[in-house]
Amino acid sequence: MAKCAICDKSVHFGNSVSHSHRRSNKMWKANIKTVKVKTAGGAKRIHICTSCLRSGKVERA
After folding, report:
1. Domain ranges, residue 40
2. What is the pLDDT, as a whole number, of residue 1?
3. What is the pLDDT confidence band of residue 54, given thresholds at 50, 70 and 90?
4. What Gene Ontology molecular function terms does this protein carry (predicted)?
5. Residue 54: DSSP 8-state
6. 16 phi/psi in degrees, rounded to 5
7. How many C-beta atoms surround the C-beta of residue 10 within 10 A?
8. Do the domain assignments include residue 4?
9. What's the Cα-to-Cα distance from 29 to each of 1, 20, 40, 41, rounded to whole Å?
10. Domain assignment of residue 37, yes or no
11. Average pLDDT for residues 37-52, to the nearest whole number?
12. Per-residue pLDDT band at 52 (split at 50, 70, 90)
């Protein structure tokens, strides 16, 4: 699974609890996109979560 290159956000694990309180495994996936960004050496493709992309922590190429 991909991880954000800026904030290291990735999947989280926990339990899905039903109405009868039975538990099963659950996975929450972060909203991660592959984006072409500007770097010192030119443009580069990296994995970025959408919250970092919206906040302007990187500049798109």
Report:
1. 12-55
2. 73
3. very high
4. structural constituent of ribosome
5. H
6. -95, 125
7. 14
8. no
9. 9, 25, 30, 31
10. yes
11. 93
12. very high
- When divided into structural domains, the chain yields a total of 1
Q: Are 8 and 50 in contact (CB under 8 A)?
A: no
pLDDT digits (tens, 9 = 90+) for 15-40: 999 999 999 999 999 999 999 999 88
User: φ, ψ for residue 38 (rounded to 5)?
Assistant: -80, 135
3-state secondary structure of 53: helix
Joined tokens for residue 27: 């996975």
Residues near 15 by beta carbon (within 8 Å), at least 6 away in sequence = 23, 24, 25, 26
Question: What end-to-end distance do the CA atoms of the chain give, in Å?
Answer: 24
Q: And the tokens for 29?
A: 């996936």
Q: The pTM is what?
A: 0.77
Strands 32-39 and 12-17: unpaired
- Identify the pLDDT of residue 50: 95
